[in-house]
Amino acid sequence: MDKFLLDRHNAILVVVDIQDRLADVMSKRQKVTDNCLHLIEGAKILDIPILVTEQYPKGLGPTILEIKNVLPRYEPVEKITFDCCREPVFLERAASQGKNQIILTGMETHICVLQTCLGLLNDNYTVHLVKDATCSRTEDSYLTAIDFLQNAGAVITCTETVLFQLLERAGTNEFKAISKRIK
Which domains does the chain have, with CATH numbers? Predict the structure, then answer.
């Protein structure tokens, strides 16, 4: 059961490749962006580290402004590998946090998100893949990736489940701020 229980003191939020030219071709762009923004704001309120990656930014552009503008610090890990774990800077930043749970979001689910999830699982991280904060250009590719990653051992979850697991209880100032945001 431990892998299903998120702990705010043991989690990192990872936002994979939500970049201008990639986001422009996603039919679920707004939903994914909105849910990532909820998760980023929740992470800031709960003091959870946030890692952002960019796949070949010269070609795909930077992280979209909606996300870039709310990050505590904009320090993306630039990469050309689909698996973020194959970029040494990404693994160094993740390991330096001393945490072993990853809340994984991003684009595209069947390429960079999938390969990153597998890399993280292989490196003994517990991965909570946030289904409504990821997308692919086609529904078939997206659904295939979700099934694939669940079979590989990722916990498939959604934005509100993640936020309320991290909160643990109602009545706190953190709860009030997060609940107001998602209404």
Answer: 2-182 (3.40.50.850)
